[in-house]
UniProtKB/TrEMBL annotation:
Record localization: Membrane
Chief location category: membrane
Organism superkingdom: Eukaryota
Name under which the protein is recorded: BGGP Beta-1-3-galactosyl-O-glycosyl-glycoprotein
Amino acid sequence: MKPTTGTAAAAAVDRRWLLPLAIGSALSLLLLVLLTTFPLPFPFPSSAASRPPNPTLFVEHKLAPSPPSTASPPRFAYLISGSAGDAAALRRVLLALYHPRNLYILHLDAEAPDSDRANLAADLADHPVIAAAANVHVIQRANLVTYRGPTMVANTLHAAAAFLYTNQHPHLEWDWFINLSASDYPLLTQDDLIHVFSKLPRGLNFIDHTSNIGWKEYQRAKPVIIDPGLYMKKKSDVFWIPQRRSVPTAFKLFTGSAWMALSKPFVEYCIWGWDNLPRTVLMYYANFISSPEGYFHTVVCNAEEFKNTTVNHDLHYISWDNPPKQHPHYLTIEDLDRMVASDAPFARKFHADDPVLDKIDAEILLRGPDMLTPGGWCGGTRENGSDPCSVIGNTTHLQPGRGAVRLQRLMTSLLSEEKFHPRQCK
């Protein structure tokens, strides 16, 4: 066998690479055809400088508000608060407001004895409808609340956070958060309220507000106070600091009513705070007199994504002095016609078991003593004098009445061209 020459050996090596080279060229041609024929699944900018920022890198995009629910009818998440001696009134307000679709948190502050909370929780656990729906929670680790200090804001945020926690369960989702006290009372049924709100955009925030703080600048914004509820076990009035401060320039101050109905997206913004505004404002209002009348108002009106969602009304009938004092008048039977004529869904303040509450039960809510307010959800019968609302039926079935007509009239007025946008965050 003759050995091959150098030229012949080189030719043999070259022939061994011909087949891989041909296959590679064919694959390259096929890939080029595919790239020029079918679009890429992702944008491919010509340079890195033209590439937009990746939104997944920023926490703000991950914590954006959840889109408002479009399911109908809506659900309400109620915080009903009270203090020592308010357990019975708190229970009465709950029964008047009750609907199996809604969620309820009851808070008796730390001034009330633990036995009041325990007895209230045990009583509601024995209620057949409330126990079956499992939609009422009594706060056991109570907060000490000073109305004129920030502890009331902290308590409201506590309840709001608890409601957001329940959203891990789809059947506990909700659309509006409403804060009430044991001295509030409804002027319509929940069927009335749900029926009217089912027609509204779920992102609206009902909050009475103004930037014309007037005398409050000197008497509330510039003083510095300390709320003893933050560090003491017994309730007392706020402490005043001799020094005064200037009005902030990083955000504009707003004030208004402490009672409101807030949308779920805005509540998420206040709790999660995907930018720093809610925390910054909260720290400022930690030393502000009557901070419940300013915190949420200032946040909503300084947040670009929410300032155009406000409806300038607190959904209450309240009888004030002129100029207003720290607390409004207590309402009686003499005020009933004015309450109803206001078309508001709630009123305050009431003394516990005032006769006007019995009249509201009998003539407006059609509610018997110690019974739930009836609605389309009541699935029982009236045979042998039984209560039809002792059985939960179809919770989406509504039976709106005269209260819905009044509330619809109010909403038509509040959302009119003359009142809606012109009264927002001015």
